[in-house]
Amino acid sequence: MAWLILAAAIIVEVVATTALKLSDGFSHKGWALVVVAGYAAAFLLLAQVLKLQMDVGTAYAVWAGAGTAVIAAIGVLFLGESINLAKAAGIALIIGGVVMLNLAGGTH
């Protein structure tokens, strides 16, 4: 159950971060509301994951790493951001680290 809640926290955080870009410095109030609500929900979900006894290091690393990789992909695919070999390698390393944490386990 902890992994499903963590996945939800990652999805909500990705939506909030994407909305942060779209809010244009909080000048678009609708997107700004999505940012605030999304980050609040993401942290509440992450807190629930920790309450379910998942290791804080694993939970936070997976949450941050997966979120970073997905946001980087959204930036390239939908927001017109550039990608080069170094960025692609960095994203691959993040994904590899998340996979290794999952293989190593992360709950008590």
TrEMBL record:
For membrane topology, the record states: Multi-pass membrane protein
Record's keyword terms, sorted? Cell membrane, Membrane, Transmembrane, Transmembrane helix, Transport
Q: Its family?
A: Belongs to the drug/metabolite transporter (DMT) superfamily. Small multidrug resistance (SMR) (TC 2.A.7.1) family.
Where can this protein be found? Cell membrane
ATP-binding: is it a keyword of this entry?
Answer: no
Regions that span the bilayer: 26-47, 59-79, 85-104
**Alphabetized Pfam families for the sequence:** Multi_Drug_Res
Q: Which protein are we looking at?
A: Multidrug efflux SMR transporter
Under the heading SUPFAM superfamilies, the entry gives:
Multidrug resistance efflux transporter EmrE
Q: Which InterPro entries match?
A: EmrE-like (IPR037185), Small_drug/metabolite_transptr (IPR000390), Small_multidrug_res (IPR045324)
Name its species: Streptosporangium longisporum
